[in-house]
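Table S2 (text version). Query chain:
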Amino acid sequence: MNKGLLTSWNDNRGYGFIKSSSVAHDTFIHISSLKHMSRKPKVGDTIYFEVATDPNGKSKAVNCRIEGVIESKVENKLEKTAAFNTPFKMSKAKKKSSTLANLVALVIILSIGFSAYNRYFANTHAGNKNNPPPLLPMPTRVSIS
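Corresponding structure-token output:
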């Protein structure tokens, strides 16, 4: 990996040149090799790059990154993580429908409970009100003499 200084940049055309002590001549750089960066390069930026040769014999910078600038892929991951950790907000329409559903469920549960209560207690206590509990015979004393 080479390190160099961006000495010129044509923003309209999307290319520039990097001066590096490890490469004999200035190296051509195209904006497409920096598309993953979160900002465009500026003259004076330190660029890390590799050198590749085109089929026509010209050398160019590839696998480039700008020192101190975050990659947009990493930035997107951070944004997605932040969005995932943000509390979920329901719209008012959904809140109303869920409240209505909860109310309906509560009414159904209460009606089932009331019905079961009436069937159990009405049958057991109704019989007891009309008919007194049966009298049990008193035990007799037996004396042994």
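Notes on Table S2: Residues 2-73 form a domain with the OB fold (Dihydrolipoamide Acetyltransferase, E2P) fold (CATH 2.40.50.140). The chain has a mean pLDDT of 80.
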